Amino acid sequence: NAGVTQTPKFQVLKTGQSMTLQCAQDMNHNSMYWYRQDPGMGLRLIYYSASEGTTDKGEVPNGYNVSRLNKREFSLRLESAAPSQTSVYFCASRDSQVHWETQYFGPGTRLLVL
Amino acid sequence: AQKITQTQPGMFVQEKEAVTLDCTYDTSDPSYGLFWYKQPSSGEMIFLIYQGSYDQQNATEGRYSLNFQKARKSANLVISASQLGDSAMYFCAMRGLDTGRRALTFGSGTRLQVQP
Fold this sequence. Notes:
The complex is a heterodimer of chains A (114) and B (116).
Chain A: E1 4-7, E2 10-13, E3 19-25, E4 31-37, E5 43-49, E6 56-57, E7 64-68, E8 74-78, E9 87-94, E10 104-105, E11 109-113
Parallel strand pairs in A: 2-11
Antiparallel strand pairs in A: 1-3, 3-8, 4-5, 4-9, 5-6, 7-8, 9-10, 9-11
Chain B: E1 3-5, E2 10-14, E3 19-21, E4 24-26, E5 32-39, E6 46-52, E7 60-61, E8 64-69, E9 74-79, E10 88-96, E11 105-106, E12 110-115
Parallel strand pairs in B: 2-12
Antiparallel strand pairs in B: 1-4, 3-9, 5-6, 5-10, 7-8, 8-9, 10-11, 10-12
C-alpha cells in the first residue's frame, strides 16, 4: 500500500517548456487534489477532482490543466512554464464518503523554472 | 470564503516542555473541520489531528491536543512534552463539511524549533 505517489520528485524546466506531473493513489479515494506551496506559505489549491471524470478550478488555476485519467490517477500539466510556477507541488486524495476524513498527501514535486 | 491565520512565524521551545501554536479562522460554513499538519524538513505533509465544529470535546491524539474555542474562532495546537523530532513547520487548515469541494484552506504556518 503505497498511498499517494508523485513523479517526478524534482524537475528543472526552461521558460516556455511543458511538462506533466503525475499522481496516483491506491486507496480507492474518490477525491483528488493538486496544491502548490511557495516559500513561507501554506498550500494553495490549484485544481481538484471530486470523482472520476470531473475536475474543477481551485484558488490558483491559471497556467495549469488537469486530467483525471481514472479513479487512481490525477495529472497536472504546465503547457508553457513560467518562473512564477517555481514551487513545490503536492497531490492529495481523500475518501469523500467520510466527511471528517483527512487528505493524504504525496511526497511532493519540486519544480524549478528558469 | 475561508481564511486561516497563524500569527507566529517561528517558535522556540525547550525539550520536554509544552508549546501552543496559535490558529484563528474565519468561515461562513455552518459546519467545518479544522486540521493540523506537520511538515518536517524532508517536506512531506503529516496529518496530526482533526476537530469538527460540532464536536463537544477537544480532540486529542497522543501528545497533541487541540484547544478549540468556537466563539473565538480559534483552534490552537498544544504539543506536550516536546521532543527534538517535533522541530518542523506546522500548518493549520480547514474545510467546510457541507460544501461539495471540501478542499483545504491552509494558514501560512509556524516553524517550531525544539531546543535541547
